[in-house]
Write a structure and sequence with these properties.
With about 220 residues, the protein is of the alpha/beta class. Helices cover about 50% and strands about 10% of the residues. The radius of gyration is 18 Å and the shape is globular. The structure holds uracil (URA).
Length: about 220
């Protein structure tokens, strides 16, 4: 929970700075530190994320977009962050790229969207759909890591370069790394293109089709 604690401490220090303090001792926060324990229950975790104001993104959100799907899903998709429609609806991938993602799940994996779990690197919309900053991704990471731990998927598909980068720390470009099966602790990670990239570059759909065929083969071997 170090990320959350650091973000909270930073927030408190900024508040003190705005109030005119030039010096303080970080140790004074120990007693008043709120409970940063993340619950072992998805609904309670969601309730906690709804209260989160640890980064700038929370200031501009209409809704926090926690994620949705089967809490026992074998397959999890991870995108970058909510867009305008998702922010309005409080649900992941419900705009145009969401429609495409749903088609990919239903037409290639041959399972309903409700059978997978869909989440994002950050739970609040970055203004103008900009890429989440490392600090925003880092602050939100404990929520996503806890979701992964609770859902315990066998396969995680990261959508786009940003989700891949923040999930692995690897800087390899998505064009090079997509379709690679990466054995992580407890699950196989497969990076592929983001549906919004496919909306702009429909010719890349065939590569995503190949990547999802690999997912299908893995699913059948489970
Ligand atoms: N793009 C994302 O990365 N996530 C969403 O939820 C919607 C669009």
């Amino acid at each position: 929970m170090k990320n959350l604690k650091n973000a909270l401490l930073l927030k408190q220090l900024y508040t003190l700075k705005q109030l005119g303090f030039r010096y303080t001792s970080a140790s004074i926060y120990k007693e008043s530190e709120p409970d940063l324990f993340l619950p072992d229950d998805l609904e309670k975790l969601k309730a906690q994320a709804l209260q989160c104001h640890l980064c700038e993104l929370s200031k501009h959100r209409t809704n926090m977009v926690f994620g949705e799907g089967d809490p026992q899903a074998d397959i999890m998709f991870i995108g970058e962050g909510p867009g305008a429609t998702e922010d309005k609806m409080g649900r992941p991938f419900v705009g145009r790229s969401g429609e495409l993602l749903t088609k990919m799940i239903e037409n290639v994996l041959l399972i309903p969207r409700e059978a997978v779990y869909i989440a994002n690197i950050v739970k609040c919309r970055p203004p103008n759909n900009r890429i989440p900053t490392p600090s925003e991704a880092h602050t939100c990471q404990p929520f996503l890591q806890k979701q992964i731990a609770l859902i315990d998927p066998k396969i995680i598909i990261t959508l786009g370069g940003t989700a891949y980068h923040y999930m692995t720390g690897d800087e390899t470009g998505i064009t090079k790394i997509r379709g690679t099966l990466l054995q992580q602790e407890g699950y196989t990670l497969i990076p592929t293109y983001h549906p919004s990239f496919l909306l702009r570059n429909p010719s890349a759909k065939k590569e995503v089709f190949e990547d999802l065929k690999k997912v299908k083969a893995l699913m059948e071997a489970l």
